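Subject: for your reference before the review

Hello V.,

The reviewers asked for a structural picture of the protein, and I figured it would be easier to keep everything in one thread rather than splitting it across files. Below is the amino acid sequence we used in the manuscript, unchanged from the supplementary table.
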Amino acid sequence: MALRTWRFVPLATLAFLLLASDAASPQGADRPKRKIKYIDIHTHVGTFYWGRELTAEGLIKFMDEHGIEKAVVLPLVSPESCLFPQTTEAALAAAKKYPDRLVPFCAVDPRANSGNPKRFGRIDGPGLVALLKRYKEMGARGFGEHQVGLPFDHPLMMEVYRACEKVGLPILCHLDDIRGIDTPGLPRLENALKTFPKLTFIGHAAGFWASISADATSADFGRYPKIPTPVVPGGALERLLAKYPNLYCDLSEPGGYAAIARDRKFGREFILRWADRLLFGTDVLMSNQEIPQFKLLDSLDLPEEVQYKIYRGNAIRVLKLEEAQRPGVRK
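And here is what came back from the structure prediction:
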């Protein structure tokens, strides 16, 4: 089943639809070679759906089919994020096997810290900092996917942000109505952005992207919009982008796709306005998964300089990767 139908259904049915998906051929089989190679800010290695494991080799094959030069491998360690844990150690191992292609992140569930100073549990604040330093020394370039069933600015979540800021790891966060919980206006996200100005937050998922529109409701934080659905200008997302330079946007998964596709004219203008703060991503979870972002972004006729920033330049800057200066195109 093609991904294009996902946007018409609630999140609760998404797993069933994915399991029913049985794409017959690689999506990139007839795709022309790209002038600008992607850096994918959002991929996974392991099992997300029963019987649909994506191995490191499978991810590399997907990347080769789609002109993706490098990909960030995100662990999923919280019970709300995945039935089958995808560990930091697995992400590090995949990157060790393909060091020129895969970029590992690390993740720790904040509830390993009880929040009780008299009995911290498995880890306290300084212990978390020490652990993240070790992961960074082992090659981790960021933290996430941070997808936890707590309010976005819960004290335990804030301890994670504090540790990431101290260690110097950007954090990729899932935000909706049940994980990284926030409400219309994104007050909890704003509290985190304001409290940790030196920490780069990369947001994604239904609630984050619903906030592109000023009429976003609590219900919208748990579903994807129908396409087309006009965007009402003045959304909380743009307000926060204008106010907080440490906020970035992950264009992956149905949320990122629908945010742009729901109102293509507004979506293209949004991309042009915030080209310095958008990161290409797929959120690939299994082989033969259809990723509509490729065709959508191709259809928008974006200037080459904008393509470069979104497809790879911003990721190079945020993750401190290396690349030679491209003639004629500003980074």
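For the response letter, the relevant points are probably these. Residues 304-319 form the longest helix (16 residues). Confidence is low (pLDDT under 50) at residues 1-28.

Happy to draft the paragraph if you're swamped.

O.
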